Amino acid sequence: MSIPVLDFSAYELGKANVSDADLEKLTKELRKAFIEVEKVMSVSKKFFSLPENKKKPFSRGSFSCNVNHGWVSLETERHNWPSEGVDDFQDAQVKFFHRCKELALKVLRLMAVGLGLDSEVFVNEHKHIGSHMNATSLRSLYYPPVDSTRVKENQVRCGEHSDYGSITLLFQSTEGGLQVQNRAEEFVSAPCIPGTVLVNIADLMQRWTSDVYVSVVHRVLLPPAGVSRTRQSLAFFVQPDDESVITCCDGSDKYPPIKSVDYLLSRFNDTYGKKTNLV
Ligand SMILES: O=C(O)CCC(=O)C(=O)O
Ligand SMILES: [Fe+2]
């Protein structure tokens, strides 16, 4: 699976007017990037694994509507706070935090519309980003150069996990190293395209949408032996407001309602030691 790359310029930060048509187009692309690509991949895979005689009736050339439609058999075709010591650290981080917040709200709007929901459904539960009533955080990561003679067994840069909140905006340096798991449970390398922001669906969003938007398992491996390269990234972990109760938006009871802060704390306990039981 390749990771979809969308042009967000129609709805970029600071843009005052966005036409309904542009917004609708971007909403569809976003929905497709989050859901439909995987769907198409999986049905295609099913089709390809059928026996030859089941595929033949759908061969290219047998559709009167379009000569190019249809299946082509093999071999047919020839063709990633310190306020002292670093000037402007705090100022830069705070400004960046607010820009991320605005971008995240935009993405959340489109995600809601993409599900046929009111555009503000998710945004309404993210009213307090940047205050003590919301746990959204900006994490700045730097992975130092690696001395391959001192690497421990099975050591990685960041172990496989999915993020806890609604979405994560990830900004990565060009060295790469991030891998994301597709629905076939294979890890694929995320490309580092300058100027792009990687959007990860996180676990609360998966619960919220009853598994329509599925959270992504990801990891960062060490560079190959002998390669000392560093990695730097900025992760903006978007979390619903502490007191928001996340309930399946399709009205189902696939996941029981849970308070955002309770969910986050239980996940932190799991990550940092204590075990909690959640449904
Ligand atoms: O270095 C990265 O880009 C991954 C960081 C990450 O996944 C995390 O902190 O949750
Ligand atoms: Fe992560």
UniProtKB/TrEMBL annotation:
The Fe2OG dioxygenase domain, residue ranges: 134-240
Classification via InterPro entries: IPNS-like_FE2OG_OXY, IPNS-like_sf, Iron_ascorbate_oxido_reductase, Oxoglu/Fe-dep_dioxygenase_dom
Family, as annotated: Belongs to the iron/ascorbate-dependent oxidoreductase family.
Domain of life: Eukaryota
Entry-linked PROSITE patterns: FE2OG_OXY
Pfam families: 2OG-FeII_Oxy (PF03171)
High-level lineage: Eukaryota, Metazoa, Chordata, Craniata, Vertebrata
GO MF annotations in UniProt: metal ion binding; oxidoreductase activity
Ranges annotated as spanning the membrane: none
UniProt source species: Anabarilius grahami
Keywords, sorted A to Z: Iron, Metal-binding, Oxidoreductase
Name of the protein in its database record: UPF0676 protein
